[in-house]
Design a protein that fits this description.
11 helices; 6-stranded mixed β-barrel
Protein backbone atom coordinates (compact mmCIF):
# COMPACT_ATOMS: atom_id res chain seq x y z
CA UNK A 1 0.00 0.00 0.00
CA UNK A 2 1.00 3.39 0.85
CA UNK A 3 0.45 5.10 4.07
CA UNK A 4 -3.15 4.90 4.83
CA UNK A 5 -4.79 7.23 2.62
CA UNK A 6 -1.44 8.37 1.35
CA UNK A 7 -1.32 6.26 -1.71
CA UNK A 8 0.70 3.16 -2.14
CA UNK A 9 3.85 2.58 -0.23
CA UNK A 10 5.87 -0.11 -1.92
CA UNK A 11 9.20 -1.11 -0.51
CA UNK A 12 11.99 -2.44 -2.67
CA UNK A 13 13.26 -5.92 -1.85
CA UNK A 14 16.31 -5.59 0.34
CA UNK A 15 18.84 -8.16 1.48
CA UNK A 16 19.40 -8.14 5.22
CA UNK A 17 22.10 -10.38 6.63
CA UNK A 18 21.11 -12.36 9.69
CA UNK A 19 24.33 -11.26 11.38
CA UNK A 20 22.95 -7.74 11.49
CA UNK A 21 19.82 -8.86 13.29
CA UNK A 22 20.84 -11.19 16.10
CA UNK A 23 22.08 -10.22 19.52
CA UNK A 24 25.87 -10.06 19.83
CA UNK A 25 27.41 -12.54 22.24
CA UNK A 26 31.01 -12.20 23.39
CA UNK A 27 33.19 -14.61 25.38
CA UNK A 28 33.39 -18.39 25.48
CA UNK A 29 30.74 -20.43 27.28
CA UNK A 30 31.32 -24.05 28.41
CA UNK A 31 28.51 -26.46 29.27
CA UNK A 32 28.74 -30.02 30.68
CA UNK A 33 27.23 -32.38 28.13
CA UNK A 34 25.80 -35.87 28.47
CA UNK A 35 23.40 -37.98 26.43
CA UNK A 36 19.75 -37.77 27.34
CA UNK A 37 19.47 -41.54 27.76
CA UNK A 38 22.91 -41.99 29.42
CA UNK A 39 22.96 -44.56 32.23
CA UNK A 40 19.74 -46.25 31.11
CA UNK A 41 19.51 -49.82 29.82
CA UNK A 42 18.16 -48.45 26.58
CA UNK A 43 15.41 -46.27 25.27
CA UNK A 44 12.38 -47.66 23.51
CA UNK A 45 11.81 -46.91 19.84
CA UNK A 46 8.76 -44.82 20.75
CA UNK A 47 10.86 -42.72 23.16
CA UNK A 48 13.54 -42.17 20.55
CA UNK A 49 10.99 -41.21 17.89
CA UNK A 50 9.28 -38.83 20.29
CA UNK A 51 12.65 -37.30 21.16
CA UNK A 52 13.54 -36.91 17.48
CA UNK A 53 10.17 -35.35 16.72
CA UNK A 54 10.64 -32.74 19.45
CA UNK A 55 14.19 -32.10 18.27
CA UNK A 56 13.07 -31.60 14.68
CA UNK A 57 10.48 -29.13 15.89
CA UNK A 58 13.25 -27.18 17.59
CA UNK A 59 15.23 -27.14 14.33
CA UNK A 60 12.21 -25.48 12.73
CA UNK A 61 12.11 -22.87 15.47
CA UNK A 62 8.69 -23.95 16.69
CA UNK A 63 9.78 -24.05 20.32
CA UNK A 64 11.20 -20.53 20.42
CA UNK A 65 8.80 -18.38 18.45
CA UNK A 66 6.22 -16.12 20.07
CA UNK A 67 2.75 -14.98 19.13
CA UNK A 68 2.75 -11.16 19.17
CA UNK A 69 -0.24 -8.93 19.91
CA UNK A 70 0.10 -5.44 18.39
CA UNK A 71 -2.15 -2.78 19.89
CA UNK A 72 -4.28 -1.19 17.16
CA UNK A 73 -6.34 1.97 16.72
CA UNK A 74 -7.97 4.02 13.98
CA UNK A 75 -10.63 3.43 11.37
CA UNK A 76 -10.81 2.76 7.64
CA UNK A 77 -14.09 4.63 7.24
CA UNK A 78 -13.63 7.57 4.83
CA UNK A 79 -15.66 9.76 7.18
CA UNK A 80 -13.18 9.07 9.98
CA UNK A 81 -9.42 9.48 10.10
CA UNK A 82 -8.95 6.95 7.29
CA UNK A 83 -6.02 5.02 8.78
CA UNK A 84 -5.15 2.23 11.19
CA UNK A 85 -2.19 2.70 13.49
CA UNK A 86 -0.30 0.75 16.15
CA UNK A 87 1.56 1.71 19.30
CA UNK A 88 5.16 0.48 19.52
CA UNK A 89 7.79 0.92 22.19
CA UNK A 90 11.23 1.81 20.80
CA UNK A 91 14.56 2.33 22.58
CA UNK A 92 15.95 1.70 26.04
CA UNK A 93 14.38 3.17 28.07
CA UNK A 94 11.39 2.59 25.83
CA UNK A 95 9.12 5.37 24.54
CA UNK A 96 5.80 4.86 22.77
CA UNK A 97 5.31 5.78 19.11
CA UNK A 98 2.09 5.72 17.10
CA UNK A 99 2.83 4.35 13.62
CA UNK A 100 0.58 3.60 10.69
CA UNK A 101 0.36 -0.11 9.80
CA UNK A 102 0.83 -0.97 6.16
CA UNK A 103 1.06 -4.26 4.26
CA UNK A 104 2.24 -2.50 1.10
CA UNK A 105 5.64 -1.30 2.32
CA UNK A 106 8.56 -2.71 4.26
CA UNK A 107 10.37 -0.14 6.34
CA UNK A 108 9.58 0.73 9.95
CA UNK A 109 10.47 4.42 10.40
CA UNK A 110 9.72 7.12 12.95
CA UNK A 111 10.28 10.86 12.99
CA UNK A 112 13.54 11.74 14.73
CA UNK A 113 14.67 14.49 17.09
CA UNK A 114 16.68 16.10 14.28
CA UNK A 115 13.48 16.54 12.29
CA UNK A 116 12.49 19.93 13.70
CA UNK A 117 10.09 21.73 11.36
CA UNK A 118 10.44 18.97 8.78
CA UNK A 119 7.95 16.79 10.68
CA UNK A 120 4.39 17.36 11.97
CA UNK A 121 4.23 18.67 15.53
CA UNK A 122 0.67 17.65 16.39
CA UNK A 123 -2.06 15.25 15.31
CA UNK A 124 -5.80 15.76 15.06
CA UNK A 125 -6.38 12.07 15.80
CA UNK A 126 -7.82 11.78 19.29
CA UNK A 127 -5.48 10.08 21.73
CA UNK A 128 -2.43 10.23 19.45
CA UNK A 129 0.57 12.08 20.84
CA UNK A 130 3.44 12.67 18.44
CA UNK A 131 6.83 11.69 19.84
CA UNK A 132 10.21 12.31 18.22
CA UNK A 133 12.74 9.49 18.45
CA UNK A 134 15.99 10.56 20.12
CA UNK A 135 18.62 7.90 19.47
CA UNK A 136 21.02 9.59 21.91
CA UNK A 137 18.63 8.87 24.78
CA UNK A 138 18.54 5.14 24.04
CA UNK A 139 21.33 2.95 25.42
CA UNK A 140 20.67 0.31 22.74
CA UNK A 141 20.64 2.62 19.72
CA UNK A 142 23.35 2.26 17.08
CA UNK A 143 23.68 4.16 13.80
CA UNK A 144 23.90 1.96 10.71
CA UNK A 145 26.88 3.17 8.68
CA UNK A 146 27.74 2.87 5.03
CA UNK A 147 30.29 0.22 5.92
CA UNK A 148 27.61 -2.13 7.24
CA UNK A 149 26.52 -5.01 5.02
CA UNK A 150 22.91 -3.87 5.40
CA UNK A 151 23.68 -0.51 3.82
CA UNK A 152 25.84 -1.97 1.06
CA UNK A 153 23.04 -4.36 0.10
CA UNK A 154 20.48 -1.57 -0.10
CA UNK A 155 22.59 0.72 -2.24
CA UNK A 156 23.64 -2.07 -4.58
CA UNK A 157 19.98 -2.87 -5.13
CA UNK A 158 19.25 0.71 -6.09
CA UNK A 159 22.31 2.10 -7.80
CA UNK A 160 25.87 0.78 -7.89
CA UNK A 161 27.31 4.31 -8.01
CA UNK A 162 25.83 5.11 -4.59
CA UNK A 163 28.19 2.66 -2.90
CA UNK A 164 31.29 4.67 -3.82
CA UNK A 165 29.59 7.92 -2.77
CA UNK A 166 28.96 6.62 0.72
CA UNK A 167 32.00 6.52 3.01
CA UNK A 168 32.24 3.57 5.45
CA UNK A 169 31.89 5.67 8.62
CA UNK A 170 29.02 7.85 7.35
CA UNK A 171 25.34 7.32 8.17
CA UNK A 172 23.48 4.98 5.81
CA UNK A 173 20.68 7.15 4.46
CA UNK A 174 17.37 6.60 2.69
CA UNK A 175 14.85 8.58 0.70
CA UNK A 176 11.36 7.18 0.12
CA UNK A 177 8.94 8.68 -2.36
CA UNK A 178 5.31 7.65 -2.36
CA UNK A 179 2.79 7.57 -5.18
CA UNK A 180 1.07 10.78 -4.07
CA UNK A 181 4.36 12.70 -4.01
CA UNK A 182 4.85 12.52 -0.23
CA UNK A 183 8.38 11.72 0.90
CA UNK A 184 10.36 10.76 3.97
CA UNK A 185 14.12 11.16 4.23
CA UNK A 186 16.47 9.99 6.96
CA UNK A 187 19.02 7.40 7.99
CA UNK A 188 19.04 3.91 9.46
CA UNK A 189 19.53 3.00 13.10
CA UNK A 190 19.38 -0.27 15.00
CA UNK A 191 17.51 -0.30 18.30
CA UNK A 192 15.30 -2.41 20.53
CA UNK A 193 11.59 -2.56 19.70
CA UNK A 194 9.17 -3.64 22.44
CA UNK A 195 6.32 -6.08 21.77
CA UNK A 196 3.53 -7.76 23.68
CA UNK A 197 3.72 -11.53 23.37
CA UNK A 198 0.67 -13.66 24.09
CA UNK A 199 1.07 -15.53 27.38
CA UNK A 200 -2.52 -16.61 28.00
CA UNK A 201 -6.06 -15.89 26.89
CA UNK A 202 -6.23 -12.11 26.49
CA UNK A 203 -2.98 -11.86 28.46
CA UNK A 204 0.40 -10.57 27.31
CA UNK A 205 3.87 -9.84 28.64
CA UNK A 206 6.62 -7.61 27.30
CA UNK A 207 9.41 -8.84 25.04
CA UNK A 208 11.81 -7.09 22.68
CA UNK A 209 13.89 -7.57 19.57
CA UNK A 210 16.71 -5.65 17.89
CA UNK A 211 15.50 -4.12 14.61
CA UNK A 212 16.97 -1.83 11.94
CA UNK A 213 14.56 1.06 11.38
CA UNK A 214 14.46 4.43 9.72
CA UNK A 215 15.16 7.65 11.62
CA UNK A 216 13.19 10.24 9.65
CA UNK A 217 14.59 13.75 9.55
CA UNK A 218 12.25 15.25 6.94
CA UNK A 219 8.71 14.49 5.77
CA UNK A 220 6.71 16.16 3.02
CA UNK A 221 3.23 16.09 1.53
CA UNK A 222 0.43 14.27 3.32
CA UNK A 223 2.89 12.85 5.84
CA UNK A 224 2.95 16.34 7.35
CA UNK A 225 -0.82 16.81 7.39
CA UNK A 226 -2.08 17.14 11.00
CA UNK A 227 -5.43 15.51 10.08
CA UNK A 228 -3.78 12.10 9.87
CA UNK A 229 -0.33 12.69 11.36
CA UNK A 230 1.31 9.88 13.32
CA UNK A 231 4.93 9.41 14.38
CA UNK A 232 5.85 7.07 11.55
CA UNK A 233 4.93 3.91 9.71
CA UNK A 234 5.48 0.18 10.12
CA UNK A 235 5.58 -1.86 6.93
CA UNK A 236 4.53 -5.50 6.81
CA UNK A 237 5.65 -6.07 3.23
CA UNK A 238 7.63 -9.07 2.01
CA UNK A 239 11.02 -7.37 1.80
CA UNK A 240 13.86 -8.62 3.99
CA UNK A 241 14.25 -5.17 5.56
CA UNK A 242 10.79 -5.25 7.15
CA UNK A 243 10.54 -5.58 10.91
CA UNK A 244 8.72 -8.89 10.48
CA UNK A 245 11.47 -10.34 8.26
CA UNK A 246 14.13 -9.25 10.73
CA UNK A 247 12.33 -10.85 13.68
CA UNK A 248 11.81 -14.03 11.66
CA UNK A 249 15.52 -14.15 10.80
CA UNK A 250 16.34 -13.74 14.50
CA UNK A 251 14.08 -16.71 15.34
CA UNK A 252 11.66 -14.67 17.44
CA UNK A 253 8.41 -15.03 15.46
CA UNK A 254 6.75 -17.07 12.73
CA UNK A 255 6.63 -15.62 9.23
CA UNK A 256 2.87 -15.21 9.46
CA UNK A 257 0.66 -12.33 10.50
CA UNK A 258 -3.00 -11.38 10.43
CA UNK A 259 -5.25 -8.38 10.82
CA UNK A 260 -8.91 -7.92 11.61
CA UNK A 261 -9.86 -4.30 10.95
CA UNK A 262 -13.05 -3.12 12.58
CA UNK A 263 -14.97 -0.76 10.32
CA UNK A 264 -17.96 -0.25 12.58
CA UNK A 265 -18.43 2.83 14.74
CA UNK A 266 -15.90 1.38 17.21
CA UNK A 267 -12.89 1.25 14.88
CA UNK A 268 -9.61 -0.34 15.96
CA UNK A 269 -9.28 -4.10 15.61
CA UNK A 270 -6.69 -6.87 15.91
CA UNK A 271 -3.17 -7.18 14.49
CA UNK A 272 -1.18 -10.26 15.43
CA UNK A 273 2.02 -12.03 14.40
CA UNK A 274 1.72 -15.82 14.49
CA UNK A 275 -0.48 -18.64 13.25
CA UNK A 276 -4.24 -18.04 13.44
CA UNK A 277 -6.10 -21.17 14.56
CA UNK A 278 -9.52 -19.62 15.06
CA UNK A 279 -11.51 -18.69 13.05
CA UNK A 280 -10.76 -21.22 10.33
CA UNK A 281 -9.41 -19.71 7.12
CA UNK A 282 -10.03 -20.26 3.43
CA UNK A 283 -6.90 -19.70 1.37
CA UNK A 284 -6.08 -18.50 -2.13
CA UNK A 285 -3.53 -19.93 -4.49
CA UNK A 286 0.08 -18.95 -3.72
CA UNK A 287 0.95 -15.26 -3.68
CA UNK A 288 2.30 -14.30 -7.09
CA UNK A 289 6.11 -14.48 -6.78
CA UNK A 290 8.57 -11.69 -7.58
CA UNK A 291 6.07 -8.91 -6.86
CA UNK A 292 6.47 -6.13 -4.33
CA UNK A 293 2.84 -6.29 -3.23
CA UNK A 294 0.64 -9.12 -2.02
CA UNK A 295 -0.70 -10.04 -5.46
CA UNK A 296 -3.10 -12.93 -6.04
CA UNK A 297 -4.70 -14.29 -9.21
CA UNK A 298 -8.31 -13.16 -9.63
CA UNK A 299 -10.43 -15.52 -11.74
CA UNK A 300 -13.93 -14.09 -11.50
CA UNK A 301 -15.82 -11.11 -10.18
CA UNK A 302 -19.59 -11.11 -9.61
CA UNK A 303 -22.14 -8.49 -8.61
CA UNK A 304 -25.06 -10.48 -7.29
CA UNK A 305 -25.66 -13.13 -9.94
CA UNK A 306 -24.01 -11.13 -12.76
CA UNK A 307 -20.46 -11.94 -13.82
CA UNK A 308 -18.28 -8.97 -14.75
CA UNK A 309 -15.77 -9.44 -17.53
CA UNK A 310 -12.26 -8.96 -16.22
CA UNK A 311 -9.40 -7.27 -18.05
CA UNK A 312 -6.26 -9.39 -18.20
CA UNK A 313 -2.56 -8.68 -18.06
CA UNK A 314 -2.26 -9.19 -21.79
CA UNK A 315 -2.43 -5.46 -22.45
CA UNK A 316 -3.09 -2.03 -21.05
CA UNK A 317 -2.78 -1.25 -17.38
CA UNK A 318 -2.00 -4.80 -16.25
CA UNK A 319 0.91 -5.07 -18.65
CA UNK A 320 2.43 -1.99 -17.04
CA UNK A 321 1.98 -3.31 -13.53
CA UNK A 322 2.91 -6.95 -13.68
CA UNK A 323 4.70 -7.49 -16.99
CA UNK A 324 2.98 -9.62 -19.60
CA UNK A 325 5.74 -12.22 -19.76
CA UNK A 326 5.30 -13.23 -16.11
CA UNK A 327 1.52 -13.26 -15.72
CA UNK A 328 0.25 -15.30 -18.69
CA UNK A 329 -2.82 -13.15 -19.22
CA UNK A 330 -4.01 -13.56 -15.64
CA UNK A 331 -5.81 -10.81 -13.75
CA UNK A 332 -4.13 -9.77 -10.52
CA UNK A 333 -5.53 -8.17 -7.38
CA UNK A 334 -3.49 -6.50 -4.64
CA UNK A 335 -4.36 -6.81 -0.94
CA UNK A 336 -3.32 -3.51 0.64
CA UNK A 337 -4.12 -2.59 4.24
CA UNK A 338 -2.68 0.88 3.74
CA UNK A 339 -5.21 2.07 1.18
CA UNK A 340 -8.69 3.04 2.32
CA UNK A 341 -10.86 2.59 -0.76
CA UNK A 342 -10.86 0.00 -3.57
CA UNK A 343 -9.48 0.95 -7.00
CA UNK A 344 -10.41 -0.62 -10.32
CA UNK A 345 -9.47 0.16 -13.93
CA UNK A 346 -12.04 2.75 -15.11
CA UNK A 347 -13.88 0.41 -17.49
CA UNK A 348 -14.21 -2.20 -14.73
CA UNK A 349 -15.25 0.33 -12.10
CA UNK A 350 -17.96 1.68 -14.40
CA UNK A 351 -19.45 -1.79 -14.90
CA UNK A 352 -19.32 -2.50 -11.17
CA UNK A 353 -21.06 0.71 -10.05
CA UNK A 354 -23.69 0.48 -12.77
CA UNK A 355 -24.72 -3.03 -11.75
CA UNK A 356 -24.76 -2.19 -8.04
CA UNK A 357 -26.91 0.91 -8.41
CA UNK A 358 -29.31 -0.82 -10.81
CA UNK A 359 -30.57 -2.81 -7.81
CA UNK A 360 -32.63 0.24 -6.89
CA UNK A 361 -33.87 1.99 -10.05
CA UNK A 362 -34.62 5.66 -9.74
CA UNK A 363 -31.85 6.56 -7.31
CA UNK A 364 -30.85 10.19 -7.60
CA UNK A 365 -27.06 10.38 -7.55
CA UNK A 366 -25.36 13.49 -6.24
CA UNK A 367 -22.26 14.90 -4.60
CA UNK A 368 -22.48 15.81 -0.92
CA UNK A 369 -20.45 18.38 0.99
CA UNK A 370 -18.23 19.04 -2.03
CA UNK A 371 -17.02 15.44 -1.99
CA UNK A 372 -16.21 13.55 -5.16
CA UNK A 373 -17.99 10.42 -3.96
CA UNK A 374 -21.08 9.13 -5.73
CA UNK A 375 -23.87 9.34 -3.16
CA UNK A 376 -27.61 8.86 -2.91
CA UNK A 377 -30.38 9.23 -0.36
CA UNK A 378 -31.70 5.93 0.99
CA UNK A 379 -33.56 5.16 4.22
CA UNK A 380 -34.04 1.38 3.94
CA UNK A 381 -31.74 -1.50 4.92
CA UNK A 382 -28.88 -1.45 2.39
CA UNK A 383 -27.99 -5.12 2.97
CA UNK A 384 -31.49 -6.21 1.98
CA UNK A 385 -31.52 -4.34 -1.31
CA UNK A 386 -28.01 -4.01 -2.75
CA UNK A 387 -26.01 -6.98 -4.09
CA UNK A 388 -23.08 -8.86 -2.61
CA UNK A 389 -19.86 -8.49 -4.62
CA UNK A 390 -17.75 -11.66 -4.89
CA UNK A 391 -14.09 -11.85 -5.83
CA UNK A 392 -13.17 -15.45 -6.76
CA UNK A 393 -9.51 -16.44 -6.66
CA UNK A 394 -7.59 -19.54 -7.60
CA UNK A 395 -8.32 -22.66 -5.51
CA UNK A 396 -11.98 -21.60 -5.24
CA UNK A 397 -11.40 -19.06 -2.49
CA UNK A 398 -13.99 -16.28 -2.63
CA UNK A 399 -13.99 -12.93 -0.87
CA UNK A 400 -17.54 -11.75 -0.23
CA UNK A 401 -18.04 -8.00 0.06
CA UNK A 402 -21.36 -7.00 1.57
CA UNK A 403 -23.20 -3.73 0.97
CA UNK A 404 -22.28 -2.53 4.49
CA UNK A 405 -18.63 -3.03 3.49
CA UNK A 406 -18.65 -1.00 0.26
CA UNK A 407 -21.30 1.62 1.16
CA UNK A 408 -20.68 4.18 3.88
CA UNK A 409 -22.97 6.64 5.56
CA UNK A 410 -21.85 10.20 4.89
CA UNK A 411 -24.72 11.70 6.82
CA UNK A 412 -28.17 10.60 7.87
CA UNK A 413 -29.83 8.52 5.12
CA UNK A 414 -27.12 9.49 2.64
CA UNK A 415 -24.89 6.69 1.34
CA UNK A 416 -21.80 6.73 -0.85
CA UNK A 417 -19.86 3.88 -2.45
CA UNK A 418 -16.13 3.17 -2.07
CA UNK A 419 -15.40 1.80 -5.58
CA UNK A 420 -12.98 4.23 -7.19
CA UNK A 421 -11.52 4.34 -10.72
CA UNK A 422 -7.75 4.18 -11.00
CA UNK A 423 -6.29 7.38 -12.37
CA UNK A 424 -5.38 7.24 -16.08
CA UNK A 425 -1.83 6.02 -16.45
CA UNK A 426 -1.64 4.83 -12.84
CA UNK A 427 -0.19 1.45 -11.90
CA UNK A 428 -2.85 0.49 -9.41
CA UNK A 429 -4.73 -2.18 -11.36
CA UNK A 430 -7.18 -3.87 -8.95
CA UNK A 431 -6.30 -2.65 -5.46
CA UNK A 432 -8.37 -3.99 -2.56
CA UNK A 433 -8.29 -1.52 0.32
CA UNK A 434 -9.46 -1.47 3.91
CA UNK A 435 -13.13 -0.79 3.27
CA UNK A 436 -13.62 -4.28 1.83
CA UNK A 437 -10.85 -6.01 3.81
CA UNK A 438 -12.39 -4.87 7.10
CA UNK A 439 -14.71 -7.02 9.25
CA UNK A 440 -12.64 -10.04 8.22
CA UNK A 441 -9.61 -11.82 9.57
CA UNK A 442 -7.04 -11.63 6.77
CA UNK A 443 -4.03 -13.94 7.14
CA UNK A 444 -0.68 -13.49 5.35
CA UNK A 445 1.06 -16.86 5.56
CA UNK A 446 4.50 -16.07 4.16
CA UNK A 447 5.82 -19.52 5.02
CA UNK A 448 3.37 -21.14 2.61
CA UNK A 449 3.09 -17.97 0.48
CA UNK A 450 -0.70 -17.85 0.59
CA UNK A 451 -3.37 -15.42 1.75
CA UNK A 452 -6.46 -16.42 3.69
CA UNK A 453 -9.54 -14.78 5.17
CA UNK A 454 -12.75 -15.36 7.08
CA UNK A 455 -15.67 -13.11 7.99
CA UNK A 456 -15.34 -12.13 11.64
CA UNK A 457 -16.50 -9.68 14.26
CA UNK A 458 -13.29 -7.66 14.65
CA UNK A 459 -14.42 -6.17 17.95
CA UNK A 460 -14.20 -9.64 19.51
CA UNK A 461 -11.03 -11.81 19.54
CA UNK A 462 -9.12 -14.42 17.53
CA UNK A 463 -6.96 -17.36 18.60
CA UNK A 464 -3.29 -17.70 17.67
CA UNK A 465 -0.85 -20.53 18.31
CA UNK A 466 2.12 -19.74 20.50
CA UNK A 467 4.93 -22.06 19.42
CA UNK A 468 6.95 -21.37 22.54
CA UNK A 469 4.33 -22.82 24.86
CA UNK A 470 2.44 -24.96 22.35
CA UNK A 471 -0.82 -23.36 23.47
CA UNK A 472 -3.55 -21.51 21.62
CA UNK A 473 -4.25 -18.07 23.06
CA UNK A 474 -7.02 -15.56 22.48
CA UNK A 475 -5.80 -12.19 21.21
CA UNK A 476 -8.16 -9.37 21.98
CA UNK A 477 -9.61 -6.42 20.13
CA UNK A 478 -7.95 -3.06 20.73
CA UNK A 479 -8.96 0.52 20.08
CA UNK A 480 -6.28 3.04 21.01
CA UNK A 481 -8.63 5.99 20.56
CA UNK A 482 -12.23 4.95 21.01
CA UNK A 483 -13.64 8.12 19.54
CA UNK A 484 -11.11 8.56 16.70
CA UNK A 485 -13.42 6.92 14.19
CA UNK A 486 -16.18 9.44 14.94
CA UNK A 487 -14.01 12.38 13.96
CA UNK A 488 -15.04 13.66 10.56
CA UNK A 489 -12.50 15.08 8.18
CA UNK A 490 -13.04 17.40 5.22
CA UNK A 491 -14.19 15.28 2.28
CA UNK A 492 -11.72 16.98 -0.04
CA UNK A 493 -8.90 15.83 2.23
CA UNK A 494 -10.19 12.27 2.52
CA UNK A 495 -10.39 11.93 -1.23
CA UNK A 496 -6.93 13.34 -1.74
CA UNK A 497 -5.53 11.12 0.97
CA UNK A 498 -7.05 7.92 -0.40
CA UNK A 499 -6.86 8.46 -4.14
CA UNK A 500 -3.11 8.26 -4.71
CA UNK A 501 -2.24 5.20 -6.78
CA UNK A 502 0.15 2.56 -5.54
CA UNK A 503 3.54 3.14 -7.09
CA UNK A 504 7.07 1.84 -6.84
CA UNK A 505 9.02 3.22 -3.90
CA UNK A 506 12.33 4.93 -4.56
CA UNK A 507 15.17 4.64 -2.07
CA UNK A 508 18.29 6.72 -2.63
CA UNK A 509 21.13 8.15 -0.61
CA UNK A 510 21.07 11.81 0.38
Amino acid sequence: MEPRGLGGFVAAALVVLVSALVIDVSGNLVFPVSHKFNGRDGASLSELKAHDHRRHARFLGAATQNAIDITLGGSGNPTGNGLYYAKLGIGNPSHDYYVQVDTGSDLLWVSCAECGKGCPDHSAIDGVKLTLYDRNSSSTSKVVTCGDNFCTSIHKKQNESQVSNCKPDEKCTYHIEYGDGSTTTGYYVKDDVQFQKATGNLQTSSTSGSVILGCGIKQSGLLNNPHTAVSGLIGFGQGNASMLSQLVAAGKVRNKFAHCLDNTKKGGGIWAIGEVVEPKMKYTSPIVPNQVHYNVVLEKMEVGSDVIKLPTSGGGVFDKIFGSSSTSDQTMAIFDSGTTLTYLPPELQEQMVKKILSAEPGLKLKKIDDSEFTCFEYSKNIDEKFPIVKFSFKNSASLWVYPHDYLFNLKEDHWCHGWMPSKPGSKTGILLGDMILSNKVVVYDLEKQVLGWADHNCSSSIKVKDDQSGSDYSVQYHNLASDASSQRLPMSFVLLATAAATAMLHMTSI
